[in-house]
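The data are quoted verbatim for reference:
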Amino acid sequence: MKYILPIVFVLASIQISAQQIFITNGKIEFEKQTNLHKDLDDSWGSDDDNIWIQSYKKSLPKIQTIYFDLYFNENKTLYKGGKEATQGLLKVPEWMEDRSKENIIYNDLKENKTVSQKNIFDNNYLITDSLRKIDWKITSDARTIAGIECRKAIGKVMDSVYVIAFYTDIVQCSGGPESFTGLPGMILGVAIPRLNTTWFATKIQLIEIKDSDFIIPKNGKKSNFADLQTIVTKSTKGWGKNAAKNVWQMML
């Protein structure tokens, strides 16, 4: 990739209006954060009398942070792991580590096609399917994400999981982090309350992205969304009330 526009938008420090600029090529850094303490409360209860849980919380960070990079042009996106997050004194235990950083998601918005490589239960799957259809409802609410004013939308995935998204039409691509697409502009922020997880853009680099830069994933056992959900649901059948939540996380 060649940097033909050596401009880095550190979005926290600038304001852009739709009348000033439209962005059609570039790279967006996303910060994904999951509240691990809330995850434990959801799984085991937040009762202060639960001594083990209250003690365990003190041994792990409240928030797990990982970074992703989204490369885009007007019709395609490629989403994959980014820089390493800064580690604090408290470490995330292996059983709670977010393994989605190993995933690669390619979306062809024009052809309505997605190809993603996901590591699930230490097995690689190559999922080829149509783009996930999300019935978005655009609201009048707005939020500034790192300096860009975004419009709020609410959608639902996997029948029952509500998604809050914030998009901007300054970026002329209807993509977003993970498999979130379908709004009239780039999604710069996502929150899924039931997963205690958020994705927010931190910066955009204006660089030329060619079709040849979108390296489509090729490794893994071939599958599609429906078949993968069947596999994951069956594998988590004995996980009690945590089963559904784990299915949702792995299917994003």
